[in-house]
Amino acid sequence: MQKISQPLTTALENNVVLQIESPAPSIQAEIWLRGEPLTSFEPGKVYIVEFWATWCGSCVDGMPHLMQLQEKYRESGVEIVGVAASERAPTADEARSTLDAWLTEKFPNLNYRIAFDSTGEMDKLWMEPSFSFWIPTSFVVDRDGCIAFIGEPTELDEVLPKVLNGSWRTSDQAKSADAERIAEGEPIAREQALKKPIKDRYRAAVEKKDWKTALSAIEEGIALMPDNLGFRRSHVNLLLHKMKDMQVGLPVMRQFVRDAINRNSENWMVAALDELFFPNLDHSHFPSAERLAMGKQLSEHILALNPPESDKRKLLPYRLAALYYHESGNKDRAIELIELALKSQGGPELIRDEDEQREISHLLQFLAYFKGEKVCYGALCAVPNNGRFDSWYTVCG
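Given the sequence above, the corresponding structure tokens read:
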């Protein structure tokens, strides 16, 4: 499952929750890339509306299964609609043309409709009111035009036959699953609704380099949500790397490191290491001995939390620990950690999507830098550069 970035606040603002028995929203697609346009849900038919994206590995992996379902249940009146509402590209035109070419290459015999939307309208109508935060997400629309199911497409094999025979919506299983889904989603939506104005104010201030306003917004966010990693990370980044206020920033950084270790959280430790060692950031004003001491603590804890023999993926944590070891003078250890991270991937043939390819590319950039020579992993290669690297972490999450 892949998280989507849009703030999901519509249901809370309008006091409308999309759930079982709700009338299905309309399909407001920008354009139809495959199949005839769907203007309305035809009575007597069952529709599967799935939100997906080409960069989402589990979405792509599930497409052959959707094709099988479409073939299997076509005579029972089932119609599948894929909604690509989260494609990533500089412009909507580029996203649309890239998606069209991708479908032609990867699924030339696709047997169900594909709708494209870059306006956000489909998310507002379907994803936001249903507290759906990840893709792929499937909506099943029953023969009377009402929602019968909202959830992961992996559940369709069990759910769809029961929808077709009319037993699903009245079952305790369906009602319980939907109630659980809403109970889990509503607090997340409320938190996103609280964060949105703060994040908007922060980003607008950063764009103008108005650091005082940005700091005020982040401090407001921390007061509201002291355990929010995005706000805490942004606080450190702003003080140390934007404002270069070491007097205020150093104590904040020390507390961030302590909290990351006390939480025993890989995500927090990765964020702290990134602020301390990412080469694109200027650390010249940072006391070197203290910076290395913090890095040693964090790296040792990350490696203890995710040792080489564990089955956990190591792409990001080992990359950050390697940066510490390289800067502390232990180049061999840095190279070893990058190679262990690559090994944890399982092999070049297991790279499934753009996100994983990007992560591997980052690893190779650092490995080439550490070794001082060209390195490759399958078809992906990197050469030594001047110490500037692609960024991979976003603050104020």
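The radius of gyration is 24 Å. Try to locate this feature in the token string yourself.
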